[in-house]
Amino acid sequence: MTDTLDQAPTAPAAAPAPVRHPARAAFGAELRRGIAPWTAPAVALTIAVPMISKAPQWQGGWGDTQELLHSCATLLAGPLVAAAGCWQGGREHRRGTAALWLSVPRGRPAQSVMAALPVAVWAVVGHLLAVVGVLAATWPYTGAGGPSVGMVAVDAWFLVCAAFTGFVVGRLWRWRLAAPVLAAATYLALGAPTYTSSDLRFLNPAEQYYLAGRVPVAWFVPVMVVWAGAPVLALVIGYAARRRLLALVPLAAAALVAPLIVSGGDDLFRPDPVAERLICTEAVPRVCVSGLDGPLLSQASDALAGLRSRLDGVAGAPQRYVHVPEGGPAPAGAAPLPNHTRGWTVVRGRLPDPADYAHQTALRLAERDCPLAVIMAEDPAARRMWETDEAVAQWLAPLDGAWLDPDLGGTYLARLTAMGGAERRAWLGRYLATRTSCDPKAVPAL
């Protein structure tokens, strides 16, 4: 009895260590070793460096920012990711372990996905890091609206496709220089179609879209995901699967969506409703800018103060100065404002040259939409009309360095300047009444 009481209590049996799923363990190891984790910083730097070097050209506009982001992600990061996937795919040949891998129980499709997916994951991580940084840098200078999540998703998906394509090439092409050669070939294959004018260029994932004031249509993302992913899936199936005829299924899907992309062409994007909404000053004549350029409203109004004061009391003077989409007509009773070019007329949400902005507005107020025959006419009457327009624009918004013919435009400007206030307002009223006319005889003489 005493011996029983003196015995020390036994410790409870230790719980067995949790067993990780073999696939998760293998995937975690692949994420941490080899070239895969280096893909993220490489992609981030490949996108960030050219974006930083051209910052004045995109900061302040969501569309301008995503235009360059799309180009960098596809045309620059795409070949890099394809090369990384190719290097990953060729590692078994370099190590001499290809036969050993064929002997393991896991099938070739699972082996291929497990080896290629880490490169794709890190490529997307690097892409998203660059995107977040760039969008954060442009946000303080923008107006309303926001970035297109669909464009970010399509670009990220393209990098995934590039990684798997490169991986299969690396498995099939047993050459140490296969990765850099594939990168160069990918760059050429993506870049060459951007110089063509055919609508077939929209099948190129690296097509340089014009995104300023435009957003993708609703079906753009799913169609582009199918178009970019289906051929890659067919390639992977053809390499890894036993039933290789299954590769025809994704190829058929790609063939179905290709005509939608080609027929859509430039209509793959629609005007951004925020860009079409105007933000206006209260004072008349009003200045109205696009909703995307809200921070420019007060600056534009201040820049046009002199022009508006010189037209005060003139019959037919514009009641509004409005942003008009490029190529579109101005509303009745309104004058169009100049279109912006990031990095030139607008830099980080500022007008670097208000005097030039006012002068460009005056030129657009005085310009005429005439047939080419009238524009190219050499007769004295037509030349007098064009020089009168130039003189009026220079008087309304003087700009140092503006060129005027000394014998015509310079003389007209001097006469307009020498007029009395009432006489000048009366003449300007007659002049503004002929803004839509291409008949030189209708323009009052100076």
From TrEMBL:
Which protein are we looking at?
A: Integral membrane protein
Q: Which domain of life is it from?
A: Bacteria
- For this protein, the parts annotated as crossing the membrane are 115-137, 149-170, 177-196, 216-238, 245-262
Keyword terms of this UniProt record? Membrane, Transmembrane, Transmembrane helix
